[in-house]
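Hi R.,

Here's the chain you asked about this morning:
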Amino acid sequence: MGSPRTFLPLAERVSSDGRPPVPVALLSVSRRLEGDQVLIRESDRSSCCWLVRTGALLVSVSSLAGRRGHLAVCGPGALVEGVDGAEIRALVASEVTRLTPTEFERDPAAARWLAAARASEVRLWQRRLGRTLTQRVPDRLGDVLIELAETFGRPWPGGVRIELPLGQELLAGLVGATRESVNRALAELVRQGRVGRAGRSYVVYDRSSS
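And here is the predicted structure, written out as tokens:
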């Protein structure tokens, strides 16, 4: 998230500040995925990890009752590894680079980059945990949409349009709420002028400029 394998979604892009640039040696073996194509199945066991170059990967788990939960949407710059019982699939057409333990053992720069990536992961999940424990569903949903806009957004009049297919079931899984609660939360965010729709996409508005 020897130790259980983890997935390491990073909010920052590859070139973001505060993290060492990805060593060139790690960018040599890539794989292209079509939308909805599975990268890692729930039953897979693997010691390698994958760096997201383009697109978006969805990390999901199934409960004992068969309900599907979505843990994260990982964009460019994210490092993902298999989690026991988790599935990782492309949400849209994506490109990933395969990394193996050998890569990190033979390249000190790669090892330092991995350590920095995992430190960033810890900070990200501390923030997400605090949000889940303390915020109302509308505020949690608003924060999730802001995070998605920061990674997958494109400029839009008054805000940022999220260039991803985001159904309400997917949003409910990311927020940790029922679909009905997300419906009500979306309506509240729209009334507040924080979120809007542009076709089938969501727009996150910049309220600081209003």
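One quick note: Residues 24-131 form a domain with the Jelly Rolls fold (CATH 2.60.120.10).

Cheers,
M.
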